[in-house]
Design goal:
Blueprint: E1 2-10, E2 16-23, H1 26-35, E3 38-45, H2 52-57, H3 62-77, H4 82-92, H5 96-110, H6 115-119, H7 128-140, H8 143-200, H9 206-220, H10 222-240, H11 243-255, H12 259-281, H13 285-295, H14 299-313, H15 318-323, H16 331-342, H17 345-402
Antiparallel strand pairs: 1-2, 1-3
Helix pairs in contact: 3-4, 3-8, 4-5, 7-8, 7-12, 8-9, 8-12, 8-17, 11-12, 12-13, 12-17, 13-14, 16-17
Amino acid sequence: MKKFTYEARDQATNKIVKSTIQAESERLAAQLLIKQGFVPLSVREQGSDTSFFGRLRGRITTKDKVMFTRQLATLLGAGLPLSQSLHTVVEQTENKHMQMVIQDVIASVEGGKSLSESFKKHPEVFGEVFLALVSAGELSGTLDESLQRVANQQEKDAATMSKIRGALTYPIIVIFVIIGVIIFMMVTVVPQVQKLYEDLGKELPFLTQIMVSTASFMATYWWLIIILLTLGGYFLVQYSKTESGITVKDTFKLKVPVFGKMFRKLYMARFARTGQTLLSTGVSMLDMLRVSGHSVGNTIVEKSILRSADKVQGGKPLSTALEAEPVITSLVPQMIKIGEQSGKIDEMMGKVAQVYEDELDEEIRTISTAIEPILMVVLAIVAGGMVGAILLPIYGLVNSVNV
């Protein structure tokens, strides 16, 4: 069945409506619209730009999703019907790909599906946490509040990840600068030193000879180096998508020096914040653990949370189940235990998330401040070492010639 974008006039209200409809052909799509009380103005089959730049232009960002969620929550909270709220939001959405997704949701809702069922058709846009909260909001009659919680969750998660990426950006740039300096010296300066020694009939010092041989190999087999780096990068990316590759990558994140502690706190904050949001909306404990475990973004932590869920299903308290998992930091079960005693587990998980989010902010600021001078010293040592390895033999060569 094909999907068509249409523009039609609603005979009941005389308003122009833009949305999508599914049918076998353009003619059948127009007939369906007429049966629904619309006068078709234009009906055309949806096309998509599958090129790289087309996909890049159509990428739905976290900002797009947050704006859609907040606008929909505001309209529903003001008392507007769901279908009308969705039509209003799609008119205010600038991202074309997001517009197509919302239009498909509108068609599904107007076809009799629930909002959560309509969202499920687009898992690449609406994740498990989003779907769980929307479903709980529909059941409890607090859909607008659930959507606001989703938006808050998305914003907090995006802000934390942005800070971590910001802390990693500067070291990566400096590392590339160091590599660039090394390549430049090897390709331009080292061959000149070799030529100078050859003209004077002198033997190259050992360290300079190593650099000359390396530079000569790079100049002769640069194409081979590019091919090997490209193939290595390709196979590394493909391996990182396999089950064993994902396990290695996620284990590395938890154990890498300095940043390992930051990643662990990020996962705990994400688990606690998601758990608080889900429990406060009325999602069951087991469903909360399943969804929040998947949303953490680390398979090692996810497996620990799912093992805890099995223990909870067997009758153990959540705090006891989490205590046995080494990747779960001690503060999480301690605070949850207090919540179990007071009957406010969601509030305690919210406090855990706030603690780790604050600690992450502080650690990111500290690392960002300390890493700049350290990297500058490393850059100076590397560049100075290469300059010394090149210039000192030249000074020695000049002195021997003068003598």
